[in-house]
Amino acid sequence: MDWGRAKNVLIYAFLLLNLVLGYQLWNDIREQADSNLDFTSLEDSTQMMMDEKGIKVLAQIPSETPELPKIAYRFVEGRRGGIVMDLPKPVDSKLIYTPRELTNALKDSLPDIANYRYDEAMDREGMFILHPLVEDKWPLFNIDLVLYYSNQKIISFMREDIEINSVSDEKEQRVLSASKALGNLIENFLPDGSVVKEIELGYYGQVFDSDAHLPVTPAWRFMLESGKEYYVQGISGDVISPNTEKSKE
Predict the structure, then answer these.
(1) Which residues form the Regulatory protein YycH-like domain (predicted)?
(2) Are 219 and 134 in contact, with CB atoms under 8 Å apart?
(3) Is 77 inside a domain boundary?
């Protein structure tokens, strides 16, 4: 064996490996920086308030401000609530799913599962939470499809079937930016030491025991590490905290 040549090959291989690992590290750092909060999207006064109150934001601030309509929905069979039904066949489960994995796992047992989005931030012990989608994209936060699992099997589910309609006399309006909604929360509502772990745009409205159509509006949801939620209506800017069941302006 030509040991000199083999030694050179090994040296070149290690150099190439170091280049690949170095590029990967640089790329990871760049992606991490890109995914961090862009503080320049917040007002200077908001950034100062973050420092004063010790508030951290671990989620990227979305830049999208789409034009969305107000909608209305109704419970197809009236609001029943709390009716748990067994799956035709238990489905193998695991502790952490991606949205696509959960959809693929349940598509045979729940054929319309693709019309829902998995909400990992809302998971509870023994439960996976999903929400119906408006226009196949925006989650309707206040309506849940709950999947129950035990012994690594998804065994049952609970949901209330709804019908979603647009409000015909309402025009689409551009939603408030996430940075403005977050700024309002930081300066006026979030307690000291809050950590914002997730920001998402969807729809939110009060749930009433009624057969009538219930109006809902676009809203930004802000999830805290403490488990508390805040919703900022995307049109009016009103702030709702379901944990206290209060609407604030």
Answers:
(1) 103-232
(2) no
(3) no
Q: Give the C-alpha separation, 238 to 16, whole Å.
A: 56
Residue 76 within any structural domain of the chain: no
Residue 29 placed within a domain? yes
The number of domains in the chain is 3
Beta bridge partners of 147: 128, 157
Chain length of the chain = 249
Per-residue burial over 128-166, b if 16 or more Cβ lie within 10 Å, else e, is: bbbbbbbeeebbbbbbbbbbbbeeeebbebbbbeeebee
Tokens 């949901």 belong to which residue?
Answer: 159
Distance of alpha carbon 200 from the chain centroid: 5
The predicted-structure confidence for 50-90, as pLDDT tens digits, reads as follows 999 999 999 999 999 999 988 888 888 766 666 889 998 89
Q: Do 1 and 45 fall within a single domain?
A: no
Q: Are residues 116 and 226 in the same domain?
A: no
Q: Which residues contact 196 (CB under 8 A, 6 or more apart)?
A: 55, 56, 57, 58, 59, 182, 190, 222, 223, 224
Residue 62, classified by CB atoms within 10 Å of its CB into exposed (0-12), middle (13-18) or buried (19+), is middle
Tens of pLDDT, residue by residue over 81-125, are 668 899 988 988 876 677 788 888 888 889 999 999 999 888 888
Look up the domain containing 127 and give its range: 82-159
Domain end (from 143, 159, 175)? 159
Neighbours of 117 (CB within 10 A): 22
Co-location of 233 and 177 in the same domain:
yes
- Write out pLDDT tens, residues 202-226: 999 876 666 677 888 999 999 999 9
